[in-house]
Amino acid sequence: MIVPGNNVRLSTRDSREFEGTILPDTNNEKIVIKLQSGYNIGIKKTKIESIKQLPKQMKKAIKKEKIKYNKNLPTVSIIHTGGTIASEVDYDSGAVIARFTPEELMGMFPELKKIANINSFLLSNMWSEDMRFSHYNLMAKAVKKEADKGADGVIITHGTDTMAYTAAALSFALEGLNIPVLIVGAQRSSDRGSSDAFMNLLCAVNYIAKSNFCDVGICLHETSDDKSCLILPATKTKKTHTSRRDAFRPFNAEPIARVYPDGRYENISKHATRQDKKDSKIKVKPFRENIKVAILKAHPNLYATELDNYSKFDGLIIEGTGLGHIAINEIDKHTGENKKIYNSVKSLAKKMPVFMTSQCNNGRINMNVYSTGRKIKESGVIGDHNDMLTETAFIKMAWLLSNYPKPMVHKLMMENLRGEISPRSLEKEFHFFNNNQ
Ligand code: DAS
User: Fold this and answer.
1) Rounded distance between C-alpha atoms, residue 414 and residue 215, angstroms
2) Architecture of the domain made up of 75-284
3) Which residue's alpha carbon is at the smallest distance from atom 3 of ligand 1?
4) 49-73 confidence digits (pLDDT tens)
5) Residue 198, Cβ neighbours under 10 Å: how many?
């Protein structure tokens, strides 16, 4: 009896042959097997000639190498928080499960130790969608501790779903950062042939070891093949694809650098260097864990109650349409609700910072072009002329509210603190995004 988890050789009526592990039956017409390469293939049951059970694949024991310190190499601390990069496929369920300890991950990638002395430890083993502000504080304190112990750089392995939020959060929370911090994830689990985990880690360790970069960044594949990785700006990056290995792209900014697996790199945009930061001293300015900031995405047929829901919050990001708009104009018998929306926006803006970002991936807010924008600005909503990403604005507002009095929050939301607001929008930023799809 063939059951999920069995290792099989499957032959089809048109004489094709596949070897792999049976995955749970989610489709009555097909049998799905996970191939050695890590990819899944579904074969119609009517096309199957025979299925032969093979001996279970013995998991190769992951050796844990003793770390020998080399004084001629830089020291990189790797802080593990979980995500696909530290996971493997559970062949019984077919799901990806959090699995590898730091030692196991290092045991899987011994090459990293030829580039730098690697200290690695587990901070948490979680999916990034479950993270909360307190996890940002744990990571920031762990980075400071490693820097104080003399690390030349820190890598944080992390899930990809909310990685951009964490990068922005650490960028704000680590005031006076004086070593590079790269956040690294993977879109394919480390146990699969197509995994991007090793190359992402290799490029990150190489960039820390070989460049003078000194800021928070993200390191993942540049293209869907294995040619290069990008070092991406912590406050200007989004995950743009659910599964591709080159899912991460910068918005209203260029990448910081391109790194090749052999250690070569090309700087692309200006960034903070170790020289700039030589006299800096890291101070962790944490998030207040109970701060309540929301993101409301404007949409047609919006209701005022969707805004009123946030009347007890501490701050609100409105991800508006176009140049920074939300439905506030009563123009006929169908738009009475819009007047209520305007009143709700005005009332919220009296109580808390309400900040406008755009649903457009690129470009900046301009609330002076259309009467809608002007009325919203007059109602007390801030954000005119900014080009902050919605996710970054959310993180920044929560961090400012955690560390500054409200009048300062309104002022600082409009100031560029960590590269989150560009002074002007550059054509090449938009074209980088489009030319590198
Ligand atoms: N669930 C995803 C996360 O932890 C897995 C991943 O993409 O790493 O962000």
Assistant:
1) 21
2) 3-Layer(aba) Sandwich (3.40)
3) 159
4) 999 998 876 555 556 656 678 899 9
5) 18
**7-54 — its CATH code?**
2.30.30.520
Q: What does the pLDDT read at residue 354?
A: 98
Contact indicator for 190, 100 with CB cutoff of 8 Å: yes
pLDDT digits (tens, 9 = 90+) for 132-181: 999 999 999 999 999 999 999 999 999 999 999 999 999 999 999 999 99
298: CA distance to ligand 1 center in Å? 27
Strand order across the 48-54 sheet: 40-44, 30-35, 17-22, 7-12, 48-54
CATH number of the domain located at residue range(s) 293-412 in this protein:
3.40.50.40
Whole-number average pLDDT of the chain: 91
Quote the CA–CA distance of 105 and 69 in Å, as a whole number: 18
Which residue owns the Cα nearest ligand 1 atom 8?
Answer: 159
Retrieve residue 406's tokens. Answer: 């409200």
The residue ranges of every structural domain in the chain are 7-54, 75-284, 293-412
Residue 87 has pLDDT above 90, yes or no: no
Q: Would the CATH topology of 75-284 be identical to that of 293-412?
A: yes
117 lines ligand 1 (CB under 6 A): no
Query: Rounded to whole angstroms, how far apart are CA atoms 344 and 350?
Result: 10
Task: Give the gyration radius of the chain's Cα atoms.
Answer: 25
